[in-house]
Amino acid sequence: MTRSWWGWGNVEDAVTGAERTALTARVANLLPGADLTAHEPPELTELTVPAARIQAPESLAELASGDLGDRVAHGHGQAFRDVVRTLLGRVDNAPDLVLRPRTEQDVVDVLDWCANSAIAVIPFGGGTSVVGGVEPRDTADYAGAVSLDLGRLNRVVEIDRVSRAARIQAGMLGPDLEQALRPEGLTLRHFPQSFEFSTLGGWLATRAGGHYATVYTHIDDMVESMRVVTPVGISESRRLPGSGAGPSPDRMFLGSEGILGVITEAWMRVQVRPRWRVGASVLFDDYAAAVAATRGIAQSGLFPANCRLLDPVEAFLNAGTPTSGGVLVLGFESADHPVDEPMSWALQICRDHGGRVPDGVRSADAEHDQARTGAADTWRSSFLRMPYQRDALAAQSMIVETFETACTWDRFDELRDAVHAAAAKAFESLGIAGVVTCRFTHVYPDGPAPYFGIYAAGTWGRTAEQWDEIKAAVSQALSSSGGTITHHHAVGRDHRPWYDQQRPEPFAVALRASKSALDPTGILNPGVLIDPAAARP
Amino acid sequence: MTRSWWGWGNVEDAVTGAERTALTARVANLLPGADLTAHEPPELTELTVPAARIQAPESLAELASGDLGDRVAHGHGQAFRDVVRTLLGRVDNAPDLVLRPRTEQDVVDVLDWCANSAIAVIPFGGGTSVVGGVEPRDTADYAGAVSLDLGRLNRVVEIDRVSRAARIQAGMLGPDLEQALRPEGLTLRHFPQSFEFSTLGGWLATRAGGHYATVYTHIDDMVESMRVVTPVGISESRRLPGSGAGPSPDRMFLGSEGILGVITEAWMRVQVRPRWRVGASVLFDDYAAAVAATRGIAQSGLFPANCRLLDPVEAFLNAGTPTSGGVLVLGFESADHPVDEPMSWALQICRDHGGRVPDGVRSADAEHDQARTGAADTWRSSFLRMPYQRDALAAQSMIVETFETACTWDRFDELRDAVHAAAAKAFESLGIAGVVTCRFTHVYPDGPAPYFGIYAAGTWGRTAEQWDEIKAAVSQALSSSGGTITHHHAVGRDHRPWYDQQRPEPFAVALRASKSALDPTGILNPGVLIDPAAARP
Fold first, then answer.
1. Rounded to 5 degrees, what angle do the CA atoms B451, B452, B457 make?
2. Which SS3 state, helix, strand or coil, does residue A340 take?
3. pTM of the model
4. Domain of residue B95, CATH code
5. Given B117, B134, B152, which residue is the final one in a domain?
6. What is the pLDDT of residue A378?
7. Closest CA to B253 of A234, A511, A215
8. Each residue's pLDDT tens digit, A223-264
9. What ipTM was reported for this prediction?
């Protein structure tokens, strides 16, 4: 398989042929009149990339690559605006050098060199950031910029079967990690949408949210201990199931997005692979009732594995289900016991709110794993296809992007209305047609994590700027309605303005102070989370 | 009711009469030959307390108390060593002044005055610290020391029924808080052993652990947002059910033990009061099998409300149950659905490991609340009596104290052995007789939180020093065996040596930097978490 240098995933998996024809037809139906002419990505050789400003010293030469494709591929993430810019041949920022450490000592050596030479270091896991987290945008004041690709730190080092924990290197990709745990019957059970192409270190640095709806789904809660290389030394927390000794050291590095140190490995809590699974799709005629039912389940203590409410537009577009009130995709899983009873309680809550279950409950256990062909699985593979389809549509002038938040239940209606109004106003101001979809990716007792999608007919050559305008409008709507600017996509560089609104100022003061103490020369991921100026001495 | 100035809780609730006689007899039986002569606490007027070094300015006069009893009561926590020293008439440290703010603005004004006058400020909730967290021990270099008692900030300000959250002031005591939520059918459901006499702010500042064994039991996980007054401004996080925007601001203040700011209020996640409850006591012949069963339940995803394994000594002493392998106290609760099925799965796991349930499953629902008279309730009231009994025994030369930790399952046997060996060695070196008990207060998929008790026959007048010697030995055993120095009692001043061993140095660097940035004159709780010298400019 060949990783695409400009877009999502593997070249061989791109949307082509009949799939592309069908996708185009669906979009043409949704947005009649859109210009869906397919444009081709440029050749790598057509790109204009500034010459590298730096060279690796002899001692690091074996880690270094100055290859053009490497530099370009490490110069952007996988947001819509990243893909579109690259499709247009725009390489706004590329690192001068890609370095691929083989050991933790290599990481230490790279940081030493960079600290001594005023070179910016951008830690790079799978490069799937959708918030500009890996783009060396603010490095003009540095002697150079290095992309520190952790991909060679890719082993499960140790497994503790008794405590159900595994020591895993930070550069390991999702599928590799699961494959290494599978012979032990174990799983990390962390499946973000980027799963195939993102790494443990990236998940930790950005506080990734997994596929599951409740309880242990955030990577934060699966961490037993972490090792982090900072410019002033290595931080290693103890392997502990819980501790009340001062503020949590791990929680300082979780979400630090590479500005405080480079995560090299972690002891992660793993689980026995689920044996019992049940799933159901609940249809509603009224969206408010669907939200109330979802809230009821979130507050029930039943802890479903899936509890994904698709609004009517999302349900129609991505699950092919026409309803007036949306669809709630429910699932329970366990490695220990059957889960029919919690499903029956959850469905009772749905019925109390007018939910219908026309297809009944789908049941599966590990012995009949292959028999799982329900809607949930269809949805899951469509979920993994979404980024590929996004790329195909991006090359057809479409604006296709998502954004996400979390808010308390009392504010959800207002927040959703504000997002719809802001998007509609932006569409109008741009003179384009578009739709907004919404699903809940996670639900908490005190609120949902709404995930919005935008599908709009853009103008070829201008879709990045058009999206930026829409994004600014909906981000401000989220922020003004009391939501967070990100529930699991991270802050990076793109979310900075709204993150700054949201973050308590004394916390910003403390974060800047921590950054100065741990990274005194300000080399780590400048421009992320805090002003690059605040990061420099 | 009158709060005791020297020991736990209310004077009227002290252990006296028949209860005291029975307690003494039980201990005499356990430790034959112990001198159990009862000593009386001194009169307040007999105490030698240095004159106050400072006076409140006119503007703060209404908040201030220089009353001797107030100063003495605010000069210590509720550890065994605190109670014993006070019993002996030793007032090692007392604040010069007690200040009781009525509003958040009062807190701001106090910090302003103290920052300008080089006065140390020790935030004080209920004063139940068992780690020296409220004792003004390191304030000789300051112009004075103020105990900032938040007790007047004691209201539930707002309830959001839809999101199930309540805005609660930091000085509110557990019972008051529950009483305010009860008319709404809600509960915070956070019941640390100190519940009656500790406050929300204290729980947050010290990362308190609740009574429940799994899932939402730590106060950390119940926080939606917090307001904290720091010397450089007020920090207020957004009310969010979840967020991935940078490192969590709340997690920086949780566990900061008053060194970064003063928590004034928080939006807390509350729950509907449980309606269904089942409980069972499982007896084991073999402790290793009991541990294995407990681990099985912790890793099952069944999420019991109680899962408290008492070792054979603990079971005999505190539950009156003779076994060779210990007793597992199991309970499930729900406001939403019956919980018989998860109990039956959990008991199946116990039976697979040789557990017996001679008394069967006790069931209760809200309509028959008064009928709950099972062993769990007996244990619960004995649990709340323990600190009173500790005080009675402390006055009879007994050394009675607890310490707690958490470790991964693979290390538990070794850790427990190390604790027993260290305690035995300390008893021998002191020439005293003693026993060690162990229970699990919380269980996680990757490890238990063992809670140890010490009962030893001390020497009147020297029990504080004798305990300090035992404490140093067992603390080093915990630390060397990979445990945390505290799972939920906090660090304060007493745990500093082992906390320093455990804390990653780069985290310490960042914490000191955050402290300097938020508290530039170093007035907040000097000596807690970091060196007082590191706190001063």
1. 155
2. helix
3. 0.96
4. 3.30.43.10
5. B152
6. 54
7. A511
8. 999 999 999 999 999 999 999 999 999 999 999 999 999 999
9. 0.96
Range of the domain at B329: 276-364
Question: Which segments of A168-305 does DSSP mark as H helices, in order?
Answer: 174-181, 200-206, 249-253, 287-298
CB atoms A163 and B256 under 8 Å: no
Are A235 and B302 within 8 A, CB to CB?
Answer: no
Chain A, 514 to 533: residues with Cβ < 8 Å from chain B are: 514, 516-518, 529
Per the CB < 8 Å rule, is A505 touching B233? yes
Q: What was the pLDDT predicted at B505?
A: 98
- Between helix A375-394 and helix A17-30 the angle, nearest 10°, is 80
| A455/A367 same-domain check | no
Measured CA angle at A315 (ends A312, A319), to 5 deg:
165
A–B interface: beta-carbon pairs under 8 A: 300
Residue A373 pLDDT level (bands cut at 50, 70, 90): very low
Given an 8 Å threshold on Cβ–Cβ distance, is B253 in contact with A247?
A: yes
A222 touches chain B (CB under 8 A): no
Alpha-carbon gap, residue A118 to A143, rounded angstroms? 6
- Cα separation, A420 vs A34, in Å, equals 21
Residues of chain B with pLDDT under 70: 365-380
Whether A267 maps to a domain, the answer reads: no
* CA A295 to chain centroid: 24
To the nearest 5 percent, what fractions of chain B are helix, strand and coil? 40, 20, 40
Interstrand relation of A144-149 and A119-124 (parallel, antiparallel or unpaired): parallel
Give the long-range contacts of residues B187-194, CB within 8 A, separation 24 or more: B187/B270, B187/B271, B187/B272, B187/B273, B188/B222, B188/B268, B188/B270, B188/B271, B189/B216, B189/B270, B189/B271, B189/B274, B190/B217, B190/B219, B190/B222, B192/B488, B193/B383, B193/B384, B193/B386, B193/B387, B194/B78, B194/B126, B194/B128, B194/B387
Residue B119 belongs to a domain: yes
Does B337 contact A302 at a Cβ distance shorter than 8 Å? yes
Give the rounded distance of the alpha carbon of B342 from its chain centre.
29
Mean pLDDT of A334-344: 95
* Chain B residues 115-174 with CB within 8 Å of chain A: 160, 162-165
Of the residues B137, B152, B167, which one is the last residue of a structural domain?
B152
